[in-house]
Amino acid sequence: MDYDSDPDFDYPSQLGFNIMIEQYSFGRMTIQGRVYTEDVLICHQACISPWWRRQGHEVRVEDIGLVLEHRPEALILGQGQPGQMKASQEVRDHLGALGIELIQKPTREAVQVFNRRLEQGAHVCGGFHLTC
Fold first, then answer.
1. pTM of this structure
2. Are 48 and 71 in contact (CB under 8 A)?
3. Which of 99, 107, 105 has the alpha carbon at shortest distance from 28?
4. What is the DSSP string of 17-60?
5. Which structural domains are found in the chain, ordered by start?
6. Residues 22/13, Cβ–Cβ less than 8 Å
7. Are 61 and 92 a contacting pair, CB within 8 Å?
8. pLDDT, tens digit, 9 for 90 and up, residues 11-68
9. Judging by beta carbons within 10 Å of its beta carbon (0-12, 13-18, 19+), is residue 55 exposed, middle or buried?
10. What is the DSSP secondary-structure string of 63-87?
């Protein structure tokens, strides 16, 4: 399947043990048939929305407790469009010390990376800012 050519990002709802994202458009994400209009954190079979962060557009260690519990291979952050949300230096350092790869991209691109990594069998978590 060529995700890059699909402007609506319609994906199968689930692959393996992890939750896949079926659709994303600005301010809206569909996961397992449910539409979310607030930020989302996905880790293993958990899908948390609204995903609130203490500093709004800055992701801090206390915002990713679920991720740290699951110790994925990677945390994929959808920064919104055009990419306002970013991991703090503390998060970058903490994940690096644990050997967890951090991938930060605008949300549309992050959705593609998240689903591809799941298809490849990777254990990933994702935090997605749905708007700016």
1. 0.86
2. no
3. 107
4. TEEPEEEEETTEEEETTEEE-S-EEEETTEEESS---TBTTEE-
5. 10-128 (3.40.1230.10)
6. yes
7. no
8. 333 334 568 999 999 999 999 999 999 999 999 889 999 999 999 999 999 999 999 9
9. exposed
10. GGHHHHHH--SEEEEE-TTTT--EE
